[in-house]
Design goal:
This protein is of the alpha/beta class. It folds into two domains: 3-168, VC0802-like (2-Layer Sandwich); 180-388, Rossmann fold. It contains 13 helices and 15 strands. It has helices at 19-35, 60-67, 86-101, 122-136, 190-200, 218-235, 246-255, 261-280, 299-306, 322-332, 335-338, 360-367, 372-381; strands spanning 2-9, 40-45, 48-53, 73-82, 106-113, 141-142, 149-155, 160-163, 166-168, 180-184, 204-211, 238-244, 285-286, 313-314, 384-388. Strands 1, 2, 3, 4, 5, 6, 7, 8 and 9 form a nine-stranded mixed beta sheet that branches. The chain has a six-stranded mixed beta sheet with strand order 14-13-10-11-12-15, with helices on both faces. Strand 13 (285-286), helix 9 and strand 14 form a beta-alpha-beta unit. Helix 7 (246-255) packs antiparallel against helix 8. The longest helix has 20 residues, at 261-280. It starts with a strand and ends in a 9-residue tail after the last strand. The chain binds adenosine-5'-triphosphate and magnesium ion (MG). The site of adenosine-5'-triphosphate (ATP) has 18 residues, from helix 5 and strand 11.
């Protein structure tokens, strides 16, 4: 019996004239993800991507696992494929559905006929399919409201597709369909979650990280690189910009009021991100800021940081509390790495009493105490770039 996977569109299905460009990106992303797993024929028809294994080595369950992390997919169904002959489906139904139905108590059936030339209409298919399932599994009861298993039969262009399992997909829009943005990635819990959320809206997410050796260690940097690797599961390949930040922090410490240190430092980070965005064509900056979490994330502090940005700044976790953000981090598999106890440059020289209501005039005046623009340009020049490939694991901690 031939088995294939159908990936049904999520939000793309609502698109109008430009829909096929989104579909092309989705198919491309699926191809990239499945390349490592085996050979599959991947094509799209009728708001669905068809994923057919081409040989014994193409592991269909591994493909389903990978597809669960591909944005743009609304639902995933593993199906048996038959010729469009209802009796043929009925003859094979017991064998294919045995795993799903032999231990179930109740079920319902759903039938869909997108090939309108098929002689039976949907309600008719549904009725006869229900009877056939009851014949094959007499212990079952029908429960149309709260079934344990839904048996679906779809009559499509090229065949009849029978399935007993529908998995909810990752949703959102295909990565790359909304342009690209730069995620300010620290070693904390929040920023990886923020990157995941924006990739879900279709952004290609690359990462920028600021390091302050010797105050921050190689291990701290490796931890962030590991987070990058983990994010590739959802984001695909990621470029990683590592910015040397020590000298800027030292000059901020030496020349500026201590109470403004954190906000000034964040503005420097944003100004460096501006330059990288401009040079590399990113259309926005993403951060893991959450309102009121720390002194640098009060409304006045965010105002001052935001004033340094020349690109839209996306803060998808701004309205979430730590528990909600942690839930996301656990789901996407970054939490355990985020809680490894390595230092971040944000904690280097951090003031005892940061101002929670900084005034932009004071901040701008403080910034004039040194030629920070020159330092920013130098830091950008010395920035290292690395690439993390989807699914690869090279960083060990
Ligand atoms: P936590 O999860 O511990 O709150 P955090 O990453 O949110 O960690 P914050 O000090 O709250 O740490 O920083 C707010 C945001 O600033 C981060 O979410 C991140 O986007 C950015 N950021 C902080 N430190 C760095 C860094 N070293 N490199 C890049 N971005 C950083
Ligand atoms: Mg935070």
């Amino acid at each position: 019996m031939e088995e294939i996977v159908l990936a049904k569109y999520g939000e793309i299905a609502l698109k109008g004239e430009n829909r096929s460009s989104f579909e092309d990106i989705l198919v491309k992303n699926i191809r990239r993800r499945l390349k490592k797993i085996g050979e599959f024929a991947i094509s799209r028809r009728q708001s669905t991507v068809y994923i057919e294994p081409l040989n014994e080595n193409a592991d269909i369950d591994a493909a389903v696992e990978a597809l669960k992390k591909v944005f743009g997919i609304g639902a995933i169904q593993k199906c048996a494929v038959f010729p469009k002959d209802f009796d043929e489906v009925v003859r094979n139904l017991k064998e294919y559905l045995d795993g799903a139905l032999s231990c179930a108590k109740n079920f319902k059936v759903e039938a869909k006929r997108s090939d309108k030339s098929f002689p039976m209409k949907s309600p008719d298919i549904q009725q006869r399919l229900g009877d056939a399932v009851l014949d094959a599994f007499p212990h079952l009861k029908v429960d149309v409201h709260n079934p344990e298993v839904t048996v679906r039969l779809e009559i499509r262009d090229k065949g009849a597709y029978l399935s007993a399992e529908r998995i909810i997909g990752a949703g959102g829009m295909p990565v790359g369909s909304s342009g690209k943005a730069l995620l300010m990635l620290s070693g904390g819990i929040d920023s990886p979650a923020a990157g995941y959320m924006m990739a879900k809206r279709g952004l290609t997410v690359d990462c920028i990280h600021y390091v302050s050796p010797p105050y921050t260690s190689d291990r701290a940097r490796m931890k962030v690189e590991k987070l990058c690797e983990e994010l590739t599961e959802y984001c695909g390949d990621i470029r990683f910009f590592c910015v040397p930040f020590t000298e800027i922090q030292e000059k901020l410490r030496d020349f500026c009021p201590e109470e403004h240190f954190t906000v000034l430092m964040r503005r420097m980070m944003v100004k460096i991100a501006n330059k990288i965005c401009e040079r590399e064509g990113y259309g926005g900056i993403i951060t893991g800021e959450s309102l009121a979490q720390v002194a640098s994330q009060t409304l006045p502090a965010l105002y001052c940081t935001n004033a340094a940005a020349e690109f839209p700044v996306f803060r998808p976790v701004i309205g979430m509390d730590k528990i909600e953000i942690t839930e996301i981090a656990r789901k996407i598999g970054t939490f355990e790495t985020s809680i490894l106890p390595y230092e971040d440059c944000c904690t280097v020289f951090s003031p005892k009493h940061p101002r929670t209501r900084p005034k932009i005039e004071e901040i701008l005046t403080a910034e004039k105490a040194y030629d920070f623009d020159k330092m920013i340009n130098e830091a950008v020049e010395k920035t290292e770039v690395k690439r993390f490939k989807y699914g690869e694991r090279t960083v060990f901690l």
